[in-house]
Amino acid sequence: MIEGGCLCGGIRYRYDGEIEEISYCHCSQCRKAHGSPFAAVSPVATDRLEFIAGAELLREYRSSPDKLRVFCATCGSPIYSAKDDLPHIRRLRLGTVDTPFTCANAFHIFTESGASWWDCDDGLPRYAQRKP
Ligand SMILES: [Zn+2]
Ligand SMILES: [Zn+2]
Fold first, then answer.
1. Which pLDDT score, from 0 to 100, does residue 119 have?
2. Would you say residue 118 lies in a domain?
3. What is the pLDDT of residue 15?
4. CATH number at residue 80
5. Distance from the CA of 62 to the center of ligand 1, in angstroms?
């Protein structure tokens, strides 16, 4: 069981599952949305992600025609993203997770769009765009 929430604490969620993948996304949208050189995200099953507080605080921003980014209306924490054609998957923003976990299946994506000032040679696989 994974628990987490936003910065202000208004939104709290529970995920009935494990974090099985971490992608560090360096795309320009994630950099803007997170205010950081990359976002750390994991796909989770929509039907196992439960909002136990603050569901009414969730706000959606359509950053691409087919993609929503969902964040807290009060504090702005990014919570997850979702694609219209993959309704059973949400991409959870792992910085909002409070439960300690480890996951060796980690990699960088969209490194060709990465910030010029960040050198992320940590030995993990790197992909210029999506993971093939
Ligand atoms: Zn909040
Ligand atoms: Zn991205």
1. 81
2. no
3. 98
4. 2.170.150.70
5. 19
Show the CA angle centred on residue 94, arms to residues 89 and 99, nearest 5°: 110
Which residues have their alpha-adjacent CB atom under 5 A from ion ligand 1? Answer: 6, 8, 10, 72, 74-75
Q: Which amino acid is at 121?
A: D
Rounded distance from Cα 123 to ligand 1 centre (Å)? 34
Q: What's the CA-to-centroid distance between 60 and ligand 2, angstroms?
A: 16
Centre of ligand 1 to C-alpha 25, Å, is: 22
Mean of pLDDT over the chain: 96
Give 119 Cα–ligand 1 centroid separation in angstroms: 30
This prediction's pTM = 0.95
The predicted structure's pLDDT at residue 87: 96
Number of domains in the chain: 1
pLDDT confidence bin for 84, thresholds 50/70/90: very high
In a domain, 67, yes or no: yes
Average confidence (pLDDT) over 37-56: 98
What's residue 121's pLDDT? 83
pLDDT for res 111: 95
Burial letters 83-115, b for 16+ CB under 10 A, else e = eeeeeebbbbbbebbeeeeeeeebebbbbebbe
> Which domain range does residue 107 map to?
2-113
Cβ < 5 A residues, ion ligand 2: 25, 27, 30
Asked if residue 25 is part of any domain, the answer here is: yes
Closest CA to 40 of 4, 93, 89, 3: 93
